[in-house]
From TrEMBL:
Subcellular location: Secreted
Keyword Secreted: yes
Protein's organism: Frankliniella occidentalis
Claim: DNA-binding is one of the keywords in the record: no
Limits of the Lipase domain: 28-302
InterPro entries assigned to the protein according to its UniProt record, in alphabetical order: AB_hydrolase_fold (IPR029058), Lipase (IPR013818), Lipase_N (IPR033906), TAG_lipase (IPR000734)
A Pfam family matched in the record: Lipase
The protein's name: Endothelial lipase isoform X4
Example GO biological process: lipid catabolic process
Amino acid sequence: MAAPSPLLSALMLVVLATAALAAAVHSSDSDKRLVKFYFYNKDNADQKIGNLIDSDLDKQDILDAGFNPDFPTKLLIHGFANGVGYASMQLPKNAYFKANSSVNVIVLDWEVMPLYPVWVYDVRGVGTRLAETLDFMVENGLLRLDQLHIIGHSLGAHVAGIAGELISSGRIARITGLDPARPLFNMKTIEGRLSKDDADLVDVIHTNAGGLAEITAVGHIDFYPNGGKVQPGCAWDITGACSHGRSYQLLAESIENPKAFPAWKCEDEWEASHLRCDVSDTFALMGEQVQFSEEGAYYLETRGGMTGPFSLSSLDDE
């Protein structure tokens, strides 16, 4: 048998090294150290870095961090090569407090290593840690799951899904998946990724489907703005990062403008993602105040640009 080529040997070494790094990162103790929760309320809403709760959970510490058990809770989870201070977390966080001061916002920060496979490997560990934390908060009278809305971008969407699968104290009210990550995920099974089984309501916004993110409909309702693949103003970006990030920009805009993004129902996700969806009589609203009468795949169009507003309608139309 011929010896493997130098290129194949090098690739095998990279795979083995990545697996070793992932195994080193992924343990119950390291997951606790890895995962940090930053708490925000109206008093520290303008700060990038909130009040930190990390590996040791304590009821009084959470209350001292400004958490109000009577308020609804928004929990944000970032994706690959992001963190608490990035726009994917800061834009929605800031929008929530502009729209409503009576809200808890938590950012789950899990910055790992600059290797995507390591992040993918650790998704389950981070999701497990999140489920444990939510169970602790429920059991200590801090959190009601019917007031919990988890928003996960990219890999963060799958972290949210795993937490929804593993939580033992009840069922999460809502998970919003913002362009759930595609590379290295098996979308033929619901294990280890976001699915509509993970919460009472799972809504998904696809903005770089088939690129950095999954094209498959995975929620109760899936939105495909502009076909969900390449967003207006992002055609120049061959990496897909511009379109991938548009998902959290659209969500943030919808928090302050709940009627910004009306959509109509398509026959299926193929129609929605291939721009073959004629206007139908079945409409929905995409975003924070999601409204729909039928599950399925929905299409809508938005403006271009880099910073918005992206809505084709104005606030005066409400």
